[in-house]
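QA checklist item 7 of 12: single-chain prediction sanity check.
[x] sequence parsed
[x] length recorded as 233
[x] structure emitted
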Amino acid sequence: MPGPWRAFKLRPCGRFRPPFDRYGAARLTQDRVGSSISAPTSVHLSRILDRAESAHVSVGWLMEQLGERSFGLTLFLMAMLAFVPGASTVVGVMIAWPAVQMMLGHNTAVLPRFIARRKVGVERLARVIRVVTPRLKWVERLIRPRWPIPFHATKRLTGSAMLLLGLTLISPVPFSQVVPAFIIMLLALAYLEEDGGALSVALVAALCSLAVTAATVWGAVETIDWLDPATHG
């Protein structure tokens, strides 16, 4: 039956504002709900542009809106680039930027100014979100918000693991970047979905990968030492 509420229509990427001050009851209620129940990233992305105040937003604004999930988005994109032949060395150096910020306990990934100031059209970003959201929903069947205590308690440990995994990407050995890049993707997805369970699994995988890398380097050094005649003279 028609009623007064029928007069209001929400646009998916519009500029709808609650009928009261945004720093008032609406924001307080949203913060309380968000702190108790973490919404999936697909839902978060679908709502993020409702807070846009102009036709263009900066990359830095997007990182701020994503909060701690911005680490997941940044690292996921870098891990994808690491699979490109010849790009893993550069990516390994780039990963140090967000990894160090995680080690320092930052709440949001801070990008260099020349990147953060770049503007993106809201309508264009809305089209990208419409394409990405269904795929994120499929990932969220396995990786979803849970176990918040490991997620927040291991932030600096995760940053250290990311930094070391990034260093292993610098190796010139062909296909040596596949396993570290895959683990970085898993860590990124765990941060993107705030999944403490997936994060714990990814940290164990990172430890195993780093142990194998350390054993390989140690074996190579021992082999060179054994083959070098000068060491036996």
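[x] summary fact logged: The longest strand covers residues 56-58.
[ ] second reviewer sign-off
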